[in-house]
Amino acid sequence: MNRKRITAKKLKMGVAAAFMLFTSSSLFAQQQISLQEAIKQALENKAEAKKAALQIKKAEYKINEARAGALPQISATAGLTYNPIIQESLLEFSGQRMRAQLGQPWVSQAAVQLHQNIFDQRVFTGLKAAKSTREFYILNAQLTNEQLIENVATAYYQVFVQEENLKTIKASYANTEKVRNVIKSLVDNGLAKAIDLDRTNVQLTNIGSSRQQLINAVELSKNALKFYMGIPIDTAIEVEEKSIEPKPQLLESAVNLDNRTELKVLNKNRELLVFNKKATEAYLYPTVALQANYGWAGMGSKFPLTNGFNNGVLWSDYSAIGLNINIPIFTGGATKSKIQQTEIDIQDLDQDIQNTQQSLNLDYKNAVTNIENALINIESMKNNVTLAEKVQKDTQANYQYGLAPLTEVLDTENALTQAKQNYANALLDYKQAEIKLIKAKGELNTLQNP
Fold first, then answer.
1. Which keywords does UniProt give here (predicted)?
2. 3-state class (DSSP) for residue 387
3. pTM for the predicted model, two decimal places
4. Residues 114, 293 contacting (CB under 8 angstroms)
5. Are 114 and 74 in contact (CB under 8 A)?
6. Is 358 helix (H, G, I), strand (E, B) or coil?
7. In a domain, 5, yes or no
8. Would 205 be classed as within a structural domain?
C-alpha cells in the first residue's frame, strides 16, 4: 500500500513538472518584417500612394500649361483653293457699266501668325494658381501617406498581438496535453479517476478550439496587413518579434493642431478658391495683345505652285502688325454673379475649416484620454499576469502534495492563459491609442523611422 502511494506521489510530481514545460513554436522561420519596412512597402506599392504621386506630376504639367499663356503663340497656315466658277461683279466707270470677274481660278497662300499677351490678368492669376495647385497635391499626397501609415501600423500591431495570443494558447495546449498524457497513465494504472481524464480532455478540446480561432485570426490580420502594404495576398510574411514598450512621455510634449496635414490641405484649398475668385474678377480687366502675321500668296489662271508671273500667276508677300485692346464694359451682370459664387465657395470652405479644427481638437483630447486609460490598463493586466503565475505555481505545489484537486490546477492554468491574453490585448489597445495620439499631434511620419 505504501509502495502504491509512493508511485502515485511520483506521478503527481510528474504532472506538476509537465506544467512547467513550454515548447516554443517556430513562428518566425520566415523572413521577418519590421513596422518601418511594412510602411516603406506600402508607400512604394499601394495604389493610393502611386496615384497621389501622379497628381503631383500632373500639377507640374498644369504649371507649364499656365506658363504657356504668357509666352508667344506662333502658328502657321497654308492653303490651296480652286474656284471653278468665279462670281462676276458689276463695275461702273464714267457712266458705263461693265461686268468683271474679281478673282482668279487658283489661289494659294502660306502665312505665319504671332500672338503675344502683353497684359492679361487671367494669365498671371492662372500661373500663381497652378503653382499653388502643385503645393496642394503635395500636401494631399502627404495626407494620403499618413493615412497609409496609420492603416499599416494598426494592422501590423494587430498581427503582432494576435501572434502573441497564439503563442500563449499553443504553450497552454502543449502543457495541458502533457498533463492529459500523465493523467491517462494514472488512470490506466488505477491511480486516478476517469472523470479527471475527461475534464482534462474537455479542457484540451476547448484550448484547441481557441487555438484554431487564433490561427484564423492571425491569418486574417496578416491578409489585412498585406493589403495595406500593397503586396500579393499569397505572400508569406512574419512580423518582427519585438516587445511593446509604453511611452508615457508622449503625453508630455505640446501639440500644435495647425501642423495637422488635414488643416494644411484645407487651407491650401482655400488659397486655390481665392485664386479662382481673382481669375473670375480678371474678366473685368482689359486685355492687351500684340498680333503680327506674315504671308506669301499666289493667284492666277493656272496652278500656282508650278507657275509664275509669265504664266499668269502672281506671287506676292504681305504682312501686318496690330495691337488689340479689349475693354469689357457691360456683361449683363454675369461676371459679378460668378464672382459672388466664388465668394460663397470660400465661405463654405471656411465652415469646413472651422469644423475640422474642432474635430481635430476633439480627436486629440480623446487620444490623450485613451492612452492614459491604456497605460493604467497595461499596468493592471501586467500585475494580473504576475498574480496568475503565482497562483498557478502555488496550486501546482499544492497538487503535488495532494492539497489541491486537479480541477484547481486546470483552472489556474486557464486563468493564467486568459491573463496573458488580456495583457496582450491591453498592449494592442495601447498601441492603437498611441497611433491615434501620434496622428492627433501630426507626427505620423515619425513611425517611418525606428
1. Cell outer membrane, Coiled coil, Membrane, Signal, Transmembrane, Transmembrane beta strand, Transport
2. helix
3. 0.72
4. yes
5. yes
6. helix
7. no
8. yes
Asked if 305 and 199 sit in the same domain, the reply is: no
Condensed to tens digits (0 to 9), the pLDDT of residues 134-179 reads 899 999 898 999 999 999 999 999 998 888 889 888 888 888 888 8
For the chain, the 3-state helix, strand and coil shares in percent, each to the nearest 5, are 65, 15, 20
Task: For residue 360, give the nearest of 426, 304, 437 by alpha carbon.
Answer: 437
Containing 56, the helix (H) or strand (E) segment is: helix 47-68
DSSP code for 330: -
Residue 121 has pLDDT above 50, yes or no: yes
* 247, 158: one domain: yes
User: Does the pLDDT of residue 2 top 60, yes or no?
Assistant: no
Per this entry, what is the length of the chain?
A: 450
- Number of H-type helices and E-type strands within the chain: 8, 8
Within this chain, do residues 178 and 65 fall inside the same structural domain, yes or no?
Answer: yes
Please state the φ and ψ torsions of residue 246, each to the nearest 5 degrees: -60, 150
Closest among 141, 142, 178 to 57, alpha carbons compared = 141
pLDDT at 349: 93
d(CA 347, CA 274): 11
Residue 163, classed as helix, strand or coil, is helix
231-250 mean pLDDT: 83
Query: Which of 76-90, 248-262, 286-300, 304-318 is predicted least confidently?
Result: 248-262
Domain that holds residue 319: 75-119+287-327
Domain count, the chain: 2
Domain assignment present for 365:
yes
Residue 332 pLDDT level (bands cut at 50, 70, 90): confident
